[in-house]
Structure formats: structure tokens, C-alpha cells
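Predict both folds.
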Amino acid sequence: MTSGEINPYQELANAIIKQAADDYRKELMKLKKNPSDNDSRAKAAKIEDFFRSKWYSVLTSLDGESLIGMLKDQVGVE
């Protein structure tokens, strides 16, 4: 691996976090349209649990609470 290349493990960690962020954003958009959607509420809560988990902190140094806040701001929900 040369200087400037991303470690394959870091690429995988980034992909996991990106997918979780995309999934969370999708559930938030569903909740924005239909606040009583319990399925989307449960899925969003599970993803929030991931962002607050030890496993998440192993994958990245980005603060999970900050990411949750940024994604909520993007979608326009509280």
C-alpha cells in the first residue's frame, strides 16, 4: 500500500457507516411524511443504537451523536 491509499479495512468501515447513514436518512424521511410509522421509528432507533455503540466507535472516530444530529438536520426533523 502506498502513501495516500486507504487501508481496505478502513474502506469497509467507511462503507458500513455510509450505509447506516443512508438507511437512517431514509427512515427519517419516512417518519417526516408519516410520524406514526412505527416500523420506521423502530428501524431508526436501531440505527441510532448502532451510532452510539462500541462497535461504531471501533469503526470511526466520528462522534455518533454528532452524526445523528447532522442527518436529522439534513432531513429537517428533530
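Second protein follows, with its predicted C-alpha cells after the sequence.
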Amino acid sequence: MYAIIETGGKQFRVEEGLELNVQKMDAEAGTKVDLDKILLIGQGEDVKIGAPYVEGAKVSCSIVEHGRDKKIVVFKKRRRKDSQTKQGHRQDYTRIKVEAIQA
């Protein structure tokens, strides 16, 4: 069984046992979180599509850890102007593990 969830403004295809990085959540590591913004649930040819969300469906997850991604370097140069800027950014993330999908 798989589901398409929405969290942090992004959509992810998840299955039971999958670990993935999502935008940082305000919860401690080791706690359980229920995600209820489920866009689609499918198993084989049986597919439920929400409008916009599937009613009564939820995905149970546990928070594994919090961390920061690799650094992204933003470099801007304006030719012939002797002007350039260099800026770095590291995005915070939360690593979750999908425990169960309930339709």
C-alpha cells in the first residue's frame, strides 16, 4: 500500500517502512506524528483520490532525527561592474519513518 502525502508544502509518495527527509517539524525526536493531508491512497488497482484530501485517511510516522542538509552556495556576479556576492544556506529537515497507512 502506498500514499501520496503533503507536508511542508511538498508532496511525497510513501510506503510503510520508508524513511524520508521532510521540512522541519516542531516535535521531539522519537515521538509519533499522524499526517492527515493524504492526497491519494493506492493498493494495486484500487486507488482512492481525494478532493483535495482523502477523508478518514492518515499516515502514522515516527520522528527519527532532526538535521541540516548540505550547504548550497548562492553566487551572483555582475559582469563588468566589479560586483559579486557569495552566500551560503543550509536547510533544516526532519527525518521521519512511515509506520502505518490507514485508509
